[in-house]
Specification:
By secondary structure, this protein is an alpha+beta fold. The chain has one domain. Helices cover about 40% and strands about 10% of the residues. It is built from six helices and five strands. The protein has a five-stranded mixed beta sheet. A hairpin with a 7-residue loop joins strand 4 and strand 5. Helix 1 packs across helix 2 and helix 1 runs antiparallel to helix 5. The longest helix is centred in the N-terminal third of the chain and has 19 residues. The protein is globular and about 45 Å long. It starts with a helix and ends with a helix.
Length: about 140
C-alpha cells in the first residue's frame, strides 16, 4: 500500500470517529440510513458522499420510513466504501476472540447491543484485531 493511500485511510478513520462523536448524526438501527438517521456504518457512507465519492439513492418501502441505499445496499457497506477506510469487511467484523465484547461486528454493536456512537467510536479508535488492514493509527503515532 502506498504511503498516500495509507495516510488517506487514516484521515478518513479520524473523520469517521469525529463524525460519530460530533452530535451531528442521529442513530438508527437496521439500515445504513433511514430518513435522516444513520447507523455507525451509515455515518461512514455519508462521509463517502460528502467527499464526493458516491451518492445516496432514496427509495420507499410501504412498511417503513424512507430508506437510502448506496451501490444497491442498504444494510451494509459496499466493498468500495469498506476499502476506502481500510475495513477488512463490509460489516466491520472484528476478531471476537481478542476483543472483550459480546459483539463481533460494528453493525451488531449498533443494531443488537444498542451501543451509542461514542462507544462505537471508542471501539473504532482502539482498532481491534481484524477490523482494519494496515495502516493503523497507532503505527502512525509510533512513526511520529
Amino acid at each position: 500500500m502506498s504511503d498516500l493511500k495509507a495516510k488517506q485511510q487514516l484521515r478518513i478513520r479520524k473523520m469517521w470517529v469525529d463524525a460519530l462523536r460530533s452530535g451531528e448524526y442521529t442513530q438508527c438501527t437496521g439500515r445504513l440510513r433511514r430518513n435522516e438517521r444513520f447507523c455507525c456504518l451509515g455515518v461512514l457512507a455519508d462521509l463517502f458522499v460528502k467527499e464526493g465519492q458516491g451518492k445516496w439513492e432514496s427509495w420507499s418501502d410501504p412498511y417503513e420510513d424512507r430508506r437510502y441505499r448506496m451501490d444497491g445496499l442498504d444494510g451494509t457497506l459496499s466493498p468500495k466504501i469498506a476499502g476506502w477506510v481500510g475495513l477488512k469487511s463490509s460489516g466491520g467484523y472484528i476478531d471476537k476472540a481478542r476483543y472483550d465484547n459480546e459483539s463481533e461486528s460494528l453493525f451488531a454493536m449498533n443494531d443488537v447491543d444498542g451501543m451509542n456512537f461514542d462507544e462505537i467510536a471508542d471501539v473504532i479508535e482502539s482498532e481491534p484485531d481484524g477490523l482494519f488492514g494496515r495502516p493503523s493509527i497507532s503505527d502512525e503515532i509510533l512513526k511520529g
